[in-house]
Design goal:
The structure holds two protein chains of two kinds. Chain A is mostly helical. Chain A has one domain. Chain A contains three helices and no strands. Chain A is flat, with a radius of gyration of 23 Å. By secondary structure, chain B is mainly alpha-helical. Chain B has one domain: Four Helix Bundle (Hemerythrin (Met), subunit A). Chain B is 74% helix and 5% strand. In chain B, strands 1-2 form a two-stranded antiparallel sheet. The longest helix of chain B is centred in the last third of the chain and has 33 residues. Chain B starts with a strand and ends with a helix. The chains are: A mainly alpha, B mainly alpha. The interface between A and B is medium-sized, with 29 and 32 residues.
C-alpha cells in the first residue's frame, strides 16, 4: 500500500514538474523569445483549470444559497420573490 | 417558478423546496462565460508577450501607465459606490440608491472617457490594432473591457430611470443586485488587465 502511494506521489510529481510539462507544438525552429514555451505552458494551464474553477464557484454559490434558505423553510417562512 | 426566482428540488427529501434567485444564477453563469472569454484573451496575450524577444516591440509608443493608474483608482472607487448602492437597495433607501448609482455611473463614465482620450493619443502615435501584435493585443484586451464598461453604463442608466420614475416606493432589489454582480466583475477584472498589459 505504501509502495503504491509512493509511486503515485512520484508519478504526480513528475507529471506536474513544469520542466517536464512544458511543451510547445509550434516552437520547432523558433527564433523568438526564450520564454515562448512558458507562455504556452501558463496559458494552457489557465484555460484548462479555469472552467473547473468557474463551475466550482457557481456550485458553491448555489449550495450556500440553498443552505441559507434551509432554516427559513424549517420555520415555515418563505422569501418573497 | 415565480417572479424571477427558480425553485430547485430539495435533494434530501420531501421537506419542501428551496428558492434560489434565477436572475443571480443566470448572471453567475454569464459571468463564468465572460471569465472564459477574457481568459482566452489573456492566454493569447501571454503567448505573444512571452514569445516576443523584446516587449514592447521597437518603435512602438509606450502605454500611459500613470494616467491609467488614476483611472484605475476611479474605477475601483466606483466599486465602493456600487457597494453603497447595494446597501441602500437592501435598506429600501430609494434616494440613497439613486445617488450612489448615479455616482457609480459618473465614475464609470470618467474611467471610460480617460481611456478613450488615451487611446486617441495612442492612435496619433501610430499604435493601431493592425499595426502589430502589440497594438492588436492591447486594443483587444482593453477594448473588450471598455465595451463591457459601456454596456454596464447603458444598463445602469436604465436602472436609474427605473428608480426615478418607477411607481413602487421601494427599488427593485434583485435587479440592482444582479447589476451589482456585473459591475463588480467589470471593476475586479480591470486591475488584472492593467497589471498584465500596462505593468508586466
Amino acid at each position: 500500500m505504501l509502495g503504491r502511494r509512493a509511486a503515485a506521489v512520484v508519478i504526480a510529481g513528475w507529471a506536474l514538474f513544469p520542466l517536464e510539462a512544458r511543451a510547445c507544438s509550434v516552437c520547432i525552429g523558433w527564433t523568438g523569445g526564450a520564454d515562448a514555451d512558458w507562455g504556452y505552458y501558463w496559458s494552457a494551464l489557465l484555460l484548462t483549470l479555469l472552467p473547473f474553477a468557474v463551475v466550482m464557484v457557481i456550485g458553491a454559490w448555489v449550495r450556500r444559497a440553498l443552505r441559507r434558505e434551509a432554516p427559513a423553510d424549517a420555520s415555515g417562512r418563505t422569501e418573497p420573490s | 417558478m415565480s417572479g424571477g426566482a427558480i425553485v430547485l428540488e430539495d435533494a434530501v427529501g420531501p421537506r419542501g423546496h428551496h428558492r434560489v434567485d434565477g436572475a443571480k444564477v443566470g448572471m453567475l453563469i454569464f459571468l463564468g462565460a465572460e471569465t472564459m472569454l477574457f481568459a482566452g484573451f489573456v492566454a493569447a496575450f501571454l503567448v505573444f508577450r512571452l514569445s516576443a524577444p523584446v516587449w514592447p516591440p521597437p518603435l512602438q509608443p509606450r502605454l500611459p501607465v500613470g494616467v491609467t493608474a488614476v483611472s484605475t483608482a476611479v474605477l475601483l472607487l466606483s466599486g465602493y459606490t456600487m457597494w453603497r448602492a447595494l446597501r441602500a437597495a437592501r435598506d429600501g433607501d430609494r434616494a440613497g440608491l439613486g445617488r450612489s448609482l448615479a455616482l457609480t455611473g459618473l465614475l464609470g463614465a470618467t474611467f471610460l472617457a480617460v481611456q478613450g482620450f488615451e487611446w486617441a493619443r495612442l492612435l496619433t502615435f501610430g499604435l493601431t490594432a493592425p499595426s502589430g501584435i502589440y497594438g492588436g493585443t492591447f486594443y483587444t484586451l482593453v477594448g473588450a473591457h471598455a465595451v463591457h464598461v459601456l454596456g454596464a453604463l447603458v444598463w445602469l442608466s436604465i436602472i436609474l430611470m427605473g428608480t426615478r420614475s418607477g411607481p413602487s416606493a421601494t427599488p427593485n432589489q434583485s435587479r440592482v443586485l444582479v447589476f451589482g454582480m456585473y459591475w463588480y466583475f467589470v471593476v475586479g477584472l480591470w486591475p488584472i488587465l492593467y497589471t498584465l498589459v500596462y505593468l508586466a
